[in-house]
Amino acid sequence: MKYLKSFIAFEWLTLLGASAVLYTRWDFPLSICIGIVLLGVILTLYFTRKYESVEMNEEDV
After folding, report:
1. How far apart are CA 27 and CA 17, in angstroms?
2. Which helix (H) or strand (E) holds 33?
3. Which of the two residues, 50 and 22, has the higher pLDDT score?
4. Which residue has the higher pLDDT, 57 or 17?
5. In sequence order, what are the residues at sequence separation of 6 or more whose Cβ sits closer than 8 angstroms to the Cβ of residue 37?
């Protein structure tokens, strides 16, 4: 799990940077940029919890 947490931090920084570039240089609407970031956060949290539950089930066996 320690490797996954550093990847999550890198992923969120990449999403924030990409959405900032989309908004400032390519004139995307702010709502789309915020939506991209929120989608990334939601998917990351979902798959992290799913991975943690699978990891906990393997420890119980």
Report:
1. 14
2. helix 30-60
3. 22
4. 17
5. 15, 16, 19
